[in-house]
Amino acid sequence: MEAVIAGTAAGYAMAIASTLALTYLAWRAQGAPWLERMVAQEVNTALLAVPIFMGASLGWTMIGLVAGSAYRLAGLDDGGWPGTSFYVVVVLAAAFSLMPLLFFWPRYWWMWMAMSAAFVGAFGFLMPALAGR
Fold first, then answer.
1. What is the DSSP string of 51-65?
2. 62-72 pLDDT, tens per residue?
3. 53: exposed, middle or buried (Cβ count in 10 Å: 0-12, 13-18, 19+)
4. I want to staple 15 with a disulfide (CB 3.0 to 4.6 A). Which of 60, 67, 88, 133 is the partner?
């Protein structure tokens, strides 16, 4: 059960990081035609943080529940740190999501790299640390 809760906590940490990144992107896109079609022009883009956080927290905690359950079912939570193969899987998951972002939106490379590092930190280090308690 600790692994599932640890996965949820890691997902929640990613939801906070995603909220910061997506709110920044919405703020930078202020005045863009695609944003004006979705949101009324009078709405301050900083207020979009609330629905962004609601969606991000729902999505990332679900991903964390699945990751924590897979971590438990693989038997990695029986004490100690997981092996190298676990870290390779986490880093590959971060890298595969990073590649299309860097290809289609290279302008924000620093944000994509930070989000990938946050993913590796949350699911590669925070989740095993919390699951082992």
1. HHHHHHHHHHHHHHH
2. 999 999 999 88
3. middle
4. 60
